[in-house]
Specification:
Layout: H1 2-17, E1 22-24, E2 30-32, H2 46-52, H3 57-71, H4 80-83, H5 86-106
Antiparallel strand pairs: 1-2
Helix pairs in contact: 2-3
Length: 111
């Protein structure tokens, strides 16, 4: 096990020296390597991580649409199909319940 860890560490060091952002460690995992530099990141691995986590392609595609719109400085439009979904309706109902509960707990507004 120690030899495998040493080999993985050596591979990671070599990949980092070559400027790689990640390396396969041989155990079925990707090891993400980072180098801190001044400035902002021009790209994100968020959608890639979503796919690795098993998030569906439809959700990943929507995430790419949202990211693209934000990068162009455009407003993000709501997806009507998602907004009409049962899950979204459940969330809206729960938010309305929480808002009503908060209003009751606060009592009437006083001037």
């Amino acid at each position: 096990a120690a030899a495998g860890a040493a080999a993985a560490a050596a591979a990671a060091a070599a990949a980092a020296a070559a400027g790689a952002a990640g390396v396969y460690d041989g155990d079925g995992d990707n090891v993400f390597l980072y180098r801190l530099v001044p400035g902002c990141c021009p790209a994100s691995f968020g959608v890639h991580c979503m796919r690795l986590a098993g998030v569906g392609e439809e959700v990943c595609a929507r995430a790419r649409e949202v990211i693209s719109a934000l990068q162009r400085g455009e407003p993000v439009r709501r997806n009507p199909r998602v907004m009409a979904s049962e899950g979204a309706q459940r969330v809206r109902r729960r938010l309305q319940q929480l808002q009503a509960t908060a209003e009751v707990a606060e009592g009437p507004e006083r001037d």
